[in-house]
Specification:
Rossmann fold; alpha/beta; 38% helix; 422 residues; 14 helices
């Protein structure tokens, strides 16, 4: 089912690999992030549960004989399967019955309610998380510096980014939702606003069938946006909301926040716990991030010009943009991303750790003036690591909004986000 004008995604390879080794693959991620397009690109048949002309009929069949919906050429796409969660158990049973790989692709933009399925799918259904598009996927990064290459010791880098600060401001506000890529600027900037309004007024209530107050959802999103790329406590978020004369109980807050997680709108960045030479208390609070920084600018009603007049907030959003891209690239390398902060105040924005134990540390800085301090922080972290229990870092990097990629005399790499790829 090859789709026209399909922009290839980094996780396409991950999807192909998963289909070759398991009977079914679940692609999860935020609405509009491109799951269906990626699945259609290799599927041979499809069941589109959201087809308004057929949804009720499909649901009735799913309730009576779900195996009928699984018939078709393979791999068969079951789009938004969570509309009829019984499909999950039907797929699991059919995979066991057929004893073949690459049978089904399931996509979902929401995690279904607890106990909606009888089985976890372990060993039968692999999972892939799809995020919005990175700058490399949207072709705004020239990809001249490879994250995989840095892990492999290729530190002799010389490259130039084509992105200006003005362009980066636009890319933060436009975001990485595929439908916005390549559109005229005005149209592209409108799309994330429409996405946020859909989340506030519809999607967050549909995820668990519990009606939510749109005004309070908006206030929660705004507070999270104001505290983006920080470790602000949940009490701080609540206090921020109450400062607007709106009240939100602890129970309501956690209900709304968990709903936002289940529709993949918020994606907090967990803390890293390395082995250190001396005992140092490590902060364990996550950092607040959305799946894409354009959610923050949309809910705050900020455009690129406003960002250019508020460089402090621009810096937080730039960090969130970099976190998005590094997460996408790290997933391709079978790695995870964290942040680090200890009681001494040493903070490192991003830690990439691969499953084989290799790791790299990244400080995110908008301009060149902050690079020196960032490099010192990275070297301080390196000195704190207990190399008897952990490897030395594969690289130390300052990820910037500047132009030039090079290795400093102290070994720290300076890399523009407009040069990076997996």
């Amino acid at each position: 089912m090859i789709t026209n004008n399909y922009l290839s995604r980094i996780c396409d390879i991950e999807l192909q690999d998963a289909l070759s080794s398991t009977g079914a693959v679940l692609i999860e991620g935020a609405k509009w992030c491109g799951k269906t397009s990626a699945a259609k690109n290799i599927a041979k048949s499809a069941l589109l549960m959201q087809d308004p002309d057929k949804t009720k009929n499909y649901q009735q069949i799913a309730d009576t004989k779900p195996s009928l919906l699984l018939k078709g050429d393979t791999p068969r796409l079951l789009d938004e399967w969570q509309i009829s969660p019984v499909l999950w158990d039907a797929v699991r049973f059919e995979v066991d019955n057929r004893q073949k790989t690459g049978q089904f692709i399931l996509t979902g933009s929401a995690v279904p309610v607890d106990n909606a399925t009888a089985h976890t799918g372990t060993g039968r259904i692999a999972r892939i998380l799809m995020r919005t598009m990175s700058l490399y996927e949207s072709k705004e990064s020239n990809g001249t510096v490879s994250l995989a290459g840095l892990f492999n010791g290729n530190h002799d880098i010389e490259s130039i980014s084509d992105l200006s600060i003005e362009q980066i401001a636009f890319l933060i506000c436009r975001g990485g939702f595929p439908a916005a890529i390549g559109k005229p600027d005005k149209t592209a900037l409108r799309m994330p606003v429409d996405y946020v309004e859909a989340v506030i007024n519809q999607d967050i209530s549909r995820v668990d069938g519990v009606e939510k107050n749109p005004n309070k959802v908006r206030l929660l999103l705004r507070s999270l946006a104001r505290n983006i790329a920080t470790m602000a406590s949940y009490q701080t978020i609540l206090n921020d909301i109450e400062a607007t004369e709106a009240t939100l109980s602890d129970k309501t807050f956690y209900s709304y926040y968990n709903a936002l997680r289940r529709i993949f709108v918020v994606e907090p960045l967990p803390a890293w716990s390395p082995s250190l030479r001396s005992k140092t208390a490590i902060r364990t609070s996550p950092k607040h991030h959305f799946v894409d920084p354009d959610i923050a600018t949309s809910v705050m009603r900020i455009n690129p010009d406003a960002l250019l007049h508020d460089f402090e907030y621009f810096g937080f959003l730039f960090e969130s943009l970099c976190a998005r891209d590094i997460r996408i690239y790290a997933q391709h390398l079978d790695g995870d991303v964290f942040h680090y902060r200890d009681k001494s105040g040493l903070e490192i924005d991003l830690i990439v750790q691969l499953r084989d134990g290799r790791w790299g540390a990244i400080e995110v800085k908008m301009g060149n003036k902050q690079i020196e301090e960032a490099a010192k922080n990275l070297l301080k972290l390196k000195d704190k690591i207990n190399v008897d229990k952990m490897r030395e870092p594969s690289f130390l990097m300052v990820l910037t909004g500047g132009q030039f990629a090079f290795q400093r005399q102290d070994g720290v790499l300076t890399v523009p986000v407009g040069c990076l790829k997996p």
